[in-house]
Write a structure and sequence with these properties.
Layout lengths: L1 H20 L24 E3 L5 E3 H10 L17 E2 L1 H13 L10 H15 L1 H6 L2 H15 L33 E2 L12 E2 L23 H5 L3 H12 L4 H17 L1 H6 L3 H11 L4 H14 L3 H9 L3 H10 L2 H15 L2 H9 L3 H7 L5 H14 L3 H9 L2 H11 L3 H12 L2 H9 L2 H10 L6 H15 L4 H8 L2 H11 L2 H23 L3 H6 L6 E5 L2 E5 L5
Antiparallel strand pairs: 1-2, 1-3, 4-5, 6-7
Helix pairs in contact: 2-4, 8-9, 8-11, 9-12, 11-12, 12-15, 14-15, 15-18, 17-18, 18-21, 20-21, 21-22, 21-24, 23-24, 23-26, 24-27, 26-27
Length: 548
């Protein structure tokens, strides 16, 4: 009886414990980006469209079936022609549900989503629903979309326009350095030491032009005399949408000139109508048209308010295509545009999901120094978020970047990306497996051949690898890193000295911890665990035996 009573007491206590510790449903509202813009529900199967926006797959399917294109809260109309599974945000949603004790998103019911879409159709087109069938609306929208976005695909701009009549349309590109504006790396990335430019290398703020650029505002008196920006935009759009290639070139060179010298024009001209006209020209088979279109986009993207608008207008896939297969100059501007767009935090995940990481990695080995520079800085900014770091590791970026460091190709800029990768567990593990410690220590040994920025970044990468890694000390000992770090501590820059000092201190602390560890096997054999105190590291650990 006593035994049964004891078991019943244990069982009832277990039940009370479970009931009291059962998770409560969270009343916290999920973040806005976790909700489908159409259904308003937590996304079950999120997908991303070319504009970088995410929707639930079933919502897009219903819109396609009904031939409906919704107008979103920001006034944009999404392009559902291409969808890509957004595994990054799906994982984030599930993690949020787990952390807040909320139920995982349930598969949406087709009929319920259909009702929501039908109500949106009625809100957007009440008059059309009474005058004719729904399909007429979608047909007109489809014809308009085809007219504005011709489905031109190209693998390489094989036809290249030379100088036009009298060589008037070649727009020179200054090789001057980028703007002095810079951004200091903040606490969001504590491992990267360098101030970074915020403008692509392909951008030149100078108003100078060579003799080959003869199109000026004086040749377009209407634009010069009209003070209204809307009239200026209208004139440019007419030129860009012209079927005459010469007119397209004229409009693009003028747009490029205006947006290079007038900051206020970058904001006023970044309108849906002009972006729509510009988007079709980026896919042009005429290399001069394509190059000037992308260069104009770089200028427009310099303003912070325009960066998200440009990504949501579907330019990223076009820039990726140009980076892969465009002319050398088009690739320079495509890399610069991706770098400029990646500066905006809201764009980082979208650019990674849309597939820009692999082409940017490949562009690091371009023959153009500008392409190398802007591709490296684009990868640096994209790798500031965890989802892109994991993607880069899976793409084999670690071995590629380390081989470039060893060969000295853009070593300083490449090390910036490695510093970000070392800050995540996947990247740190891959770098340690790839013998990164020995490579970085070897670079520091050749201090006479390595510039100051590269030395600082080497130390920063080692500092990132040393955090939370039990393997680092052994690998550093094999590479004889202590003597090199002591030399940096004595003779390096202030930033490098600080990092080297902290690495050495960390290694000394771990050595003391190892010396203080006890022999657990001997302690167990001696039976000395009962009510005995042992010193482990710097903490006292009391192990008391308990009978059950």
């Amino acid at each position: 009886m006593g035994g049964n009573g004891k078991h019943r007491w244990i069982f009832s206590f277990y039940q009370r414990s479970n009931s009291s510790s059962s998770p409560k449903q969270s009343k916290t509202q999920p973040p806005h980006e976790f909700l489908c813009p159409i259904s308003g529900s937590l996304m079950f199967d999120p997908v991303v469209i070319p504009s970088g926006q995410s929707f639930d797959r079933i919502s897009i399917q219903v819109c396609r079936d009904l031939g409906f294109t919704p107008t979103l809260q920001d006034g944009s109309t999404p392009d559902f022609s291409t969808i890509i599974p957004n595994l990054a945000i799906k994982t984030t949603i599930l993690a949020w549900c787990r952390d807040h004790h909320a139920q995982d998103p349930a598969p949406p019911d087709y009929s319920s989503v259909e009702k929501i879409v039908l109500s949106k159709i009625q809100e957007q087109t009440p008059s059309r629903l009474t005058s004719g069938p729904d399909i007429r609306v979608s047909e007109r929208e489809l014809l308009k979309a085809v007219a504005e976005n011709p489905p031109v695909l190209f693998s390489h701009a094989v036809t290249e326009i030379g100088p036009s009549v009298n060589g008037r349309l070649l727009c020179s590109t200054s090789t001057s350095s980028s703007s002095d504006e810079s951004v200091i790396v903040t606490a969001s990335s504590p491992y990267t030491p360098l101030p970074l430019s915020t403008r692509p290398a392909c951008f030149s703020a100078s108003g100078s032009s060579s003799s080959s650029t003869e199109i000026t505002l004086s040749e377009t008196p209407n634009l010069k005399s009209q003070s209204s920006s809307s009239l200026e935009e209208q004139e440019l759009v007419l030129k860009l949408k012209s079927s005459d290639i010469f007119e397209q070139e004229t409009g693009l060179v003028l747009l490029r000139k205006i947006t290079r010298t007038k900051e206020e024009a970058r904001i006023s001209l970044c309108s849906p109508r002009l972006l729509s006209a510009l988007r079709s020209l980026i896919t042009s088979r005429y290399s001069v048209v394509q190059t000037n279109a992308i260069a104009s986009l770089v200028n427009l993207s310099l303003e912070k308010s325009s960066k998200v608008v440009i990504v949501r207008s579907g330019f990223v896939p076009l820039l990726i295509d140009a980076l892969k297969a465009g002319s050398s100059e088009a690739q320079e501007h495509a890399a610069g545009a991706l770098f400029s767009l990646a500066l905006e935090d809201e764009n980082k995940m979208a650019i990674g999901v849309l597939g820009a990481l692999q082409p940017l990695l490949h562009a690091l080995r371009s023959v153009s120094e500008r392409t190398q520079h802007d591709s490296a800085l684009a990868l640096y900014h994209l790798s500031l978020i965890q989802s892109n770091r994991v993607k880069l590791v899976k793409l084999g970026a670690v071995s590629t970047l380390l081989s470039m460091v060893k060969s000295g190709d853009s070593a300083s800029r490449v090390l910036l990306v490695l510093c970000n990768l070392a800050a995540c567990p996947e990247g740190k593990s891959a770098m340690l497996d790839a013998n990164a410690v020995a490579i970085l220590v070897g670079m520091l040994r050749e201090s006479e051949l390595v510039c100051k920025a590269t030395r600082e970044n080497c130390v920063a990468a080692l500092f990132a690898l040393s955090h939370g890694s039990m393997r680092f000390k052994g690998l550093a000992k094999e590479a004889r890193a202590v003597e090199v770090l002591k030399e940096v501590e004595e003779r390096g820059s202030e930033r490098a000295k600080d990092k080297a000092k902290r690495i050495l201190q960390m290694m000394r602390d771990r050595k003391e911890d190892e010396d203080d560890e006890i022999d657990w096997e001997a302690a167990l054999e001696s039976g000395g665990l009962s009510r005995t105190r042992y010193r482990v590291g710097k903490d006292d650990f009391a192990a008391n035996s308990t009978d059950f």
